[in-house]
Specification:
Elements lengths: L2 H21 L4 H8 L3 H9 L6 H11 L3 H7 L4 H13 L3 H15 L3
Helix pairs in contact: 1-3, 2-3, 2-4, 5-6
Length: 112
Amino acid sequence: MGESMRLNVGKRFGVHVRALRHARQFTQEGLAERSELSVDAVRRIERGAFSPSLETVNKLATGLDVSLRTLFNDFDRDRRDQVAELCDYLGKRNRNELRMVWRVIRAMFEGV
């Protein structure tokens, strides 16, 4: 794999991490704290300035509250992985929260 391809993947991964962070309304500082990483590490990952180790990627997934599968797949795919991310999130909710989410979703789409 050429150098430009690695950079492209690193930058795309960084954009993906930033999008996940924004979707959760985390600051870089907040994600760093949740992930037990330095703020500089989060910034460098988001810029695609370095390739994180597997340990760092695992910490990012924990900090973002997603599975490793979602973290890896989602940056290179679209709709299918967004569904996987949603499933990850819902899988961590309790029964009452799931009932509420189900009612909200049905109400949103019944007339559509």
